[in-house]
Amino acid sequence: MTVVLPRHQMVRVIAASITDLVAAAMAMIRGLGGGVSPRPSDRAASAPWTGVPVQDLIEALPALIWCTRPDGEPIYFSRQLRDFYGFDVDQKDSAGASRLSGILDTVIHPDDLATVRKMFAHSLKTGAPYAVKHRHRRFDGEYRRVETRAIAMRNAAGEIVQWNGICFDIEDQMRVQADLHLVQENLTRASQAASLAELSASIAHEVNQPLAAIVANSNACQRWLLADPPNIQRAQKTVDRIIRDANAAADVVGRIRALFSQSEKVRNCTALDGVIIEARDLVADQAVRRRVRLDVGIADDLPLVAFDRVQVQQVLVNLIRNGMEAMSDVPGDRVLGIFAYRTEGYVTIEVSDRGPGVDHPEEIFEPFYTTKGYGMGMGLAISRSIVESHGGRLWVEKNEPQGAKFIFTLPAEVNKKS
Ligand SMILES: Nc1ncnc2c1ncn2[C@@H]1O[C@H](COP(=O)(O)OP(=O)(O)OP(=O)(O)O)[C@@H](O)[C@H]1O
Ligand SMILES: [Mg+2]
Question: For labeling, which of 195, 272, 289, 383 is most exposed (least CB within 10 Å)?
């Protein structure tokens, strides 16, 4: 016979079942304290509604689950995690090293190892929950990105008795996101190209008229002067017209410059480290896709700078992107350095790469200079004009041992030092 419960009772029944399951799972996981992944004979509590042993249920969950002792020593891997790594929790034990070290050294990507160690040590010391995204190595050698979370389990006295952790494989999701970013980036480039073409056409149109008039009047002026006798009065009039038209052309250029200098109104006096971190985060996906390691170093004593956040971010992103593009054929280490430090009256920022370097250090700053099939040749021209409008300088040097180093300065606020 089927009994239909009223909705509020059903909610209570389900809630009670979940509570029972969690309690049973806790008891079961606690029971794992001493050893390796449990054998079928170790199975204890059953899930209340199906009679499936909780152990089997945890083993079957589509997640990578692990437990450690209070000091971080691993004591349990779920079946999914054992399958993922291709070994069990006790199989990397070796004399002279802790089990935790043996496992971390085997599975964590070398570039992420220091961060993972630091963050886990922090959680072990403070009892704070642990959450980090990193790459870890599958049994077949492929590194996959995962999101790991762990939390301390405490006894009635509040002492930590165990750490329970879960990893989700987010590699596929990250790849989709990266592809999406690429599409967005291409779209942005395309629309930038379109607005640039439009802007150039209208500038050409506006400047062309006074220029054509200047040429015509110059010819006329020459004729009045060459006439016999020369007609000085007429020549004088045409020179007046030439001056008027030249001023009109200069006005057009002046108005365009004014458009770009509007940013002075939105300059705030802040520390630069935030904008550098934001720019790094913006390009992080692209860096992973291009196998580029981003090395960021920001000095602690940076003075404050008055700058337009969006524009300076644009400069950083342009330089970082150029650096990454320059290393696309580099077979070895692709390292992109971003360093910010204090110099006399300025903050200096360096963006260095290990690409082929720059052959024409001044030409590359010219608008429309590009060696890329898909490039517009505007990145450096725009970056230089932004830096100069802030009162700084942007130039390129040779990087050691190889590659290019783009350096720019921004004036420090004299009165407000951080
Ligand atoms: N880090 C670098 N290493 C070597 N060459 C570089 C580097 N950065 C820039 N260049 C050279 O300078 C040229 C101009 O760079 P710029 O950023 O102005 O334009 P682009 O990257 O070609 O196109 P876009 O306008 O889309 O940025 C590049 O095409 C490239 O030849
Ligand atoms: Mg560029």
Answer: 195
Distance in Å, CA 328 to ligand 1 centroid: 13
* Residues forming beta bridges with residue 68, ordered by sequence position: 74, 163
- Both tokens of 350, joined, read 């360096």
Query: 104, 189, 196, 190: which is closest to 148 by C-alpha?
Result: 104
Tokens representing 40 are 């079928």
Cis peptide bond N-terminal to 110, omega within 30? no
* CB-based contact 79:59 (threshold 8 Å): yes
The closest of 137, 139, 134, 140 to 120, measured between CA atoms, is 134
Pairing between β-strand 160-169 and β-strand 305-307 as defined by DSSP bridges: unpaired
User: What residues does 146 pair with on adjacent strands?
Assistant: 134, 169
Domains observed in the chain: 7-169 (3.30.450.20), 175-262 (1.10.287), 268-411 (3.30.565.10)
> Rounded to whole angstroms, how far apart are CA atoms 252 and 101?
67
Cα(376) to centroid(ligand 2), Å: 8
Q: Which of 57, 58, 63, 284 is nearest to 169 (CA)?
A: 63
Query: What backbone torsions phi and psi does residue 115 show, to the nearest 5 degrees?
Result: -65, -45
The 3-state DSSP class for residue 338 equals strand
Q: What is residue 47's predicted lDDT score, i.e. its pLDDT? A: 62
Mutate to test the pocket of ligand 1, among 314, 364, 376 (most ligand atoms within 8 A of CB): 364
Query: Which atom belonging to ligand 1 lies closest to the Cα atom of 375?
Result: 23
For the entire predicted model, the pTM comes to 0.56
Sole residue written with tokens 């700078």: 305
Could you read off the pLDDT of 26-74 as tens digits, one per residue?
455 554 444 444 444 444 566 666 778 888 888 888 889 999 999 999 9
DSSP code for 323? H
Per the omega criterion (within 30 degrees of 0), is the bond before 129 cis?
A: no
Cis peptide preceding 401, ω within 30 of 0:
yes
Does 375 sit in the ligand 1 pocket, CB within 6 Å?
A: yes
